[in-house]
Amino acid sequence: QVQLVESGGGLVQPGGSLRLSCAVSGIIIRVYTMEWYRQAPGKQRELVALISRWSSTDYSSSVKGRFSISRDNAGNTVYLQMNSLKPEDTAVYYCKIQDTNYWGQGTQVTVSS
Question: Which residue(s) pair with 35 in the sheet?
């Protein structure tokens, strides 16, 4: 049974940082591209970052230069380092295995003073 469990969300002030983790079990992630999505209230879910099996990365324009995705294949975990957070980054953040229907349950990130 494949499970993705996100953690690390919370409430942070504008300009602050958070590090999200996505721990995966039931499947070996090293051969997959891993993705982070987010969904804000009333908006569609959007892809914010991905990391390929070779650790090449890509980001949406809204987070480029502020967010950094990384992976620990030995630990079967993917991370999203989020810096210089803005109120518009408020959303539920999900990790996903590309080209599969495996999603985590999401972790809430709220950026507010």
Answer: 50, 96
